Amino acid sequence: MTTSRLIEWTADGQTFEGKLCVPDGPVKGSVLICHAWAGRGAHEEAFAERLAGHGYAAMAGDVYGKGVLGTSVEENQALMNPLASDRAGKLQPRLRAALAALTEQPEVDPAKVAAAGFCFGGLSVLDMARTHAPVVGVAAFHAIVGSMGTEPADRITAKVIAFQGFDDPMAGPEDLKAFGEEMTVRQADWQLVSFGGVTHAFTNVDADAPDMGLKFDAAARDRSYRMFDAFLGELFG
To answer: What is the phi/psi pair of residue 122, to 5°?
Structure first.
């Protein structure tokens, strides 16, 4: 059994809201879940519930503001672009605020926190690793993997895993190669899993826009989730 509650925090002159899901039994570790470009929604919340069912405290976070959601491509872009274009100055402070809100919860051990994200959220968690946010590991699902270009050049200490579709038009083979080279230069403990014949948003059952390269793939989702479970087991024992 699991329980859930909404959590609010303030940052950057705004109020934000996350949904925290916790197991009824012992907590193995905690995970901040970073949302895709539409904002915190059913996909992220279902993932938090799944993780709580596996013994983790998981919060579907928020970087747009309480109740702020996009309902179209245009709205999603309008919400994401200001943060994506200033990842160090705007996005990362909001992510740190969400992480702080999670670590303040009584079920959470601040020394045992990871981050996972989908699409824009995948970019977010990779940048958390790049900028030394206080997490022990990050997992990106169908992320935009490109470097910030402004992050430190020292060693990445968080463990990193990325799950990508090989046919993702938003992160193609050359992007994946550059990502691997970046992680190697920064001496990260990193893994990259690339699924053949899979495009963007493969974990989201509602993704069905092949013209944009968005398509749900049940096999890739299930495989990535099982590998993520193993990754958490490695992080938290």
So the answer is: -65, -45
